[in-house]
Amino acid sequence: MMDLQSRLSTALDIANRGAALAREHFDRFDELKVESKGLQDFVSQADREVEQLIREALQEAFPDDGIIGEEFDDVAARNEFVWVIDPIDGTANFVSGIPHWCVVLAGTYQSRAVVAVIVDPCAGEVWTAIRGQGAMLNGRALQVSRSVSLSVGSVGVGYSKRQPVSKVVAVIDRLVNEGGVFFRSASGALMLAYVAAGRLIGYVEPHMHPWDCVAALLLIEEAGGQIQQFEPQEMLEYGGQIIAASPGVYDALHKMARECFGPPSGNTA
C-alpha cells in the first residue's frame, strides 16, 4: 500500500488549515449566513468555504484520489483511494456559538478507512489514526474505557432524522433504566472520538452519514474498541447504523441498541 504516514501528515496539515479558517468564522458566528437543510440541519458559508479549501488542497496533493464531502458533489477516483470530508461536524453548535464542533478528514483505501484526522480547534485537540498503527490525541496514544458495565460511564446517543425518533427515545429509556447515563451533543464525530479516548464508554445512532463517522470509527478500532461491522462501500455510499463501545460493554450496548433500532439497513451484523 502507499505511504500512509505521508498521507496522514498531508491530511493533518490540510485539516489544520481548514480548522483555522473555520475558527475565524466561528469567532464571528453572529455574522454568518446560515441556511436550513431541514429540521436542526444547518449549513453556513463557513461549511462551504472550509470544504472548498480542503478539496482544493487534496486535489493538488493527490490528483488521482477521489473525494466524498458533505457540501459538494463527489469526485471520482482514478485509483482506489478516496477522501471523506466533513468540513464542520456540529454545525448546529457552530452557528450558535457553542464551542463543540470539529473538522473531519478520513482517507479510505478500497473503501476501508486507513487514515483519520479530527481537529477540534476550540479545545486544542487533534485526533489521528493510521490503520494498524494505533490512534493518537495530541501525540498521546489513545485507549478506550475499561468499564465493564453500562452503569459505569456515559454513552453517547445520536439522532438521525432518517429514522423515527421513537428508536432513540427507546434506547435512552433502556439505558437510563439500567443505571446508565446518556450524553448528547450536535457533533457525532466528536462523541465517537470521545469513545476512542475513554471519555465515553460507547456510542449509538440509528443512522450516520459516512463523513460523520468513518474517521472516528477508525480511531475507536485503533484505540482497542469494538464497532458494529459494515460493508465498507455501502457505508461510503449510504451511511449506516452505528454501534461502538469499549470491549467491556460492547455486547450489552449492541444488544440494547439493536433491540431498539432494529436491524441495520445495508450493514452486516
CATH architecture label of the largest domain: 2-Layer Sandwich
> Strand-residue fraction?
25-35%
The tally of domains stands at 2
| Rounded radius of gyration (Å) | 17 Å
Q: What is the number of strand segments?
A: 14
What is the string of SSEs from the N terminus onward? HEEHEEHEEEEEEHEHEHEHEH
- Give the termini distance in whole angstroms: 28 Å
Structural description of this entry:
- The protein is an alpha+beta fold and 269 residues long.
- The chain folds into 2 domains: 138 residues, 2-Layer Sandwich (Fructose-1,6-Bisphosphatase, Chain A, domain 1); 108 residues, D-Maltodextrin-Binding Protein, domain 2, CATH 3.40.190.
- The chain is built from 8 helices and 14 strands.
- The protein has a 7-stranded mixed β-sheet, with helices on both faces. A 5-stranded mixed β-sheet has the order 11-10-12-14-13, with helices on both faces. Strands 1-2 form a two-stranded antiparallel ribbon.
- Helix 1 packs antiparallel against helix 2, helix 4 crosses helix 8 and helix 5 runs parallel beside helix 6.
- The two termini are 28 Å apart.
Please give a quick description of this structure.
This protein has helices at 4-26, 45-61, 91-94, 165-177, 188-196, 210-222, 232-238, 247-261; strands at 34-38, 41-44, 66-69, 81-89, 102-109, 112-120, 125-130, 135-137, 140-141, 154-157, 181-183, 202-208, 226-227, 240-245. The chain has 269 residues and is α+β, with helices and mostly antiparallel strands.
